[in-house]
Amino acid sequence: MAQKKVLLIDDDKVICEIALQLLSEEGFTVITAQTAALGLQAAAEHKPDLVLLDVVLPDLNGYSVCQQIRASAPHLPIIMLTGLDDNESIVQAYECGATDFFAKPIKWKLLGYRIHYILRASRTLEQLTHSETALANAQRLAHLGSWEWYPQEDRTERSDEYYRIYGADKALLPASMFAILPQVHVEDQVRVKKALEQAKKHAQSYQQEFRISAPHNGMRVLHEQARVFTKPTGEIDYIEGITQDITELVDAQKRIRSLAYYDNLTGLANRQLFRELLQHELQRALRQNTQCALLFIDLDRFKRINDTLGQPAGDIVLQTIGNRINSCIRGCDVAALHYEDDQKSEQVARLGSDEFTVILTDIDQPEDAAQIVQRILDAIAQPIEGLGQEVLVSASIGIALGPQDGSDVETLIKNADLAMYAAKDKGRNTYQFFDKTMNDVVLDKFALENDLRKAIEQDQLELYFQPKINPLTGIIVGAEVLLRWKHPQRGMVSPLTFIPIAEESGFIVELGTWVLQQACQINHDWQAQGMPIVPLAINLSAANFNHPNLLPDIKRTLTDLSLSPNCLVIELTEGILMTDVQETVETLKALKDMGIYLSVDDFGTGYSSLSYLKRFPLDELKIDKGFVQDIINDPNDAAITAAIIGLAQNLKLNVVAEGVETTEQADFLLRRGCNTMQGYLFAKPMPRRDFEQLLQAGIDMRDMQAVFMVDY
Ligand code: C2E
Ligand code: CA
Ligand code: CA
């Protein structure tokens, strides 16, 4: 440890000399000064650890010097050297701030001890001061106020930080512990007051949180902890407490909770919170023998909105829909609401993308749920304004009742989801209650999907061909390629069954490529055999059309086989054409530029917008067989069909009627100017060999009753 510096201010040279000698032997560094002026200067310069100060100095008395040194060094030990038993100077020495006195003549050995002792005491004092400052700092940083309350006198001693927390004036706040009550939030006042009274009357320690309003600092949340100390007699001695401002902590916890439990975009509950609430509601329903309903809401074709209007617009749509669902719930299920500050019901959740859920509690009968669901559907269907164009959204809703349709969270969610898919199958913008057969349907679909994936390699798929006829000449002008699946156990499975499954599972991409290659290969083989050239029309699903490999695949297939693009027709539905207009135009143009013939399938059933017909480079319209079927009996269908034919003629498009079954239908179409037909009247879709024979025979297809009779 560094040597301690002792400053001796005394005009007696002998004393100075002795001090230098003896105190140095005691391990001190000694500095001497023989006048008050020199002494003050040395005190400032050398910063001694202790000062020995003679009362009598030539230039100034020692008391004044003591005062001056003390003024700038409040903790520096100063020992005044006084005359023996000179009581007056001893008192005066203390009054001017001396730490101690020592009588002259000096007993040097004793002085050494005294200096050691005082230095040690001063060090302890310094440490104590340091700890106190540190404590005060720590309390300030932690927003932690401390207090002692003497309830007998209702007097409270509070730390500085306590006053700071309350924004209270130390001089003005009454000593009573109850003085802070007016600042406590009205809703918490009774509770806080009661805790104080219990502590005072029944020596009850407490711990509680409450809100206060602090001047200039708004509402704060405090945590207060109090411990009652009693005397041996059992009487309350005093109560010690700490009060902490935990506003930031509470805010942070709120933020964390909101990140963990709420959906950022809509402010609705997220999947996590939804599951916890559902669990809770299910258990409650089981316990109290009541019923709850889980609604699974999926927006119809939301992806299209996102794709065409952009994601920011999609986000606005989701927010709007979220709010609408929320307000439908607010109006009707008041009993079970737990509102957050922003008036969002936790019963409504967004699980991700365009999926929402609602938990309805205390449902007496399914009709109650149905009523609310209908209200939600209606609210969603209202046009959404402010996005540059009016946006219309619809939803499909599945409903599962708990505990009847599932007594655990997993099952109930799965079943509501199944019901939602059933609602979509029913034609969207509608709802569907879960029923037990849905599970079987799904299992069956699942099994079919699995089998379908193996169908190509196990050679169960086959292309059928259905001729397109010129009714005036009876000549086959082309054929539509239609897929057939011979399932080893189930027999013939209709494309109406397996194409949607392939579309849902994404397998349609592989399937489409396979059909394209097969059709082109067969066409190539026919030409190699010298048979008449027939363009083959293949059907493309949306996933095929939008796949980035579409153009390269077609190009490569045609080049590999040296097949002319004229031999390929692509049939597309109106739905595909309407998705992403810009990209669709580009793909269509590319196909057109390659020389491929483009046909719109099932025309009249989709969005039939005249404007798109003009913008797309199309070659052909196929009148949907639904219209053709009824042209004889239904004047509407007759009118629509006639209009489509007229439209096609105006736009210089070829028009094909499909599903022609009777000569009356063929007559009607012919008279209106339809020059291509396809249907059972002429031929059903048939296997390759049969179609080859038909081609080679060069039969006039107008006499095709024979073919019509053959049933495949
Ligand atoms: P589509 O493209 O509208 O095909 C016409 C459907 O009408 C065919 O049913 C055909 O057999 C049937 N049909 C033809 N003439 C008549 C008739 O006179 N009366 C009646 N009632 N029906 C007639 P199919 O072969 O069962 O195909 C059903 C649907 O499956 C097709 O409808 C098409 O959308 C889809 N499909 C078939 N093959 C493929 C394929 O390779 N790829 C894709 N993506 N879809 C396919
Ligand atoms: Ca077709
Ligand atoms: Ca069709």
> Can you summarize the main beta sheet?
10 strands, mixed
- Helix share of residues? 40-55%
What is the number of helices? 26
Instruction: State which percent range the strand residues make up.
Output: 15-25%
What ligands can be seen in this structure? ligand C2E, calcium ion
Q: What's the shape?
A: elongated
Please mark out the parts with pLDDT under 50 across 5 or more consecutive residues, or reply none. Answer: 332-342, 705-712
CATH class of the largest domain: Alpha Beta
Q: CATH topology of the largest domain, anyone?
A: TIM Barrel
CATH 2nd-level architecture of the largest domain: Alpha-Beta Barrel
**Rg for CA atoms:** 48 Å
Topology (elements, then pairings):
Elements lengths: L3 E6 L3 H13 L2 E6 L2 H11 L3 E5 L7 H11 L5 E6 L3 H9 L4 E5 L3 H34 L2 E7 L4 E4 L1 H7 L19 H17 L3 E9 L3 E13 L5 E10 L1 H15 L9 H18 L3 E8 L2 H8 L1 H20 L17 E5 L2 E6 L5 H16 L13 E8 L6 H17 L5 E3 L3 H19 L5 E10 L4 E13 L3 E3 L1 H11 L2 H21 L7 E4 L2 H4 L4 H12 L6 E6 H5 L2 H14 L2 E7 L6 H6 L4 E4 L1 H5 L5 H16 L3 E5 L4 H10 L3 E3 L7 E2 H10 L7 H5 L3
Parallel strand pairs: 1-2, 1-3, 3-4, 4-5, 14-15, 17-19, 19-20, 20-21, 21-22, 22-23, 23-24
Antiparallel strand pairs: 6-7, 6-10, 8-9, 9-10, 11-13, 11-14, 12-13, 16-17, 16-25, 17-18
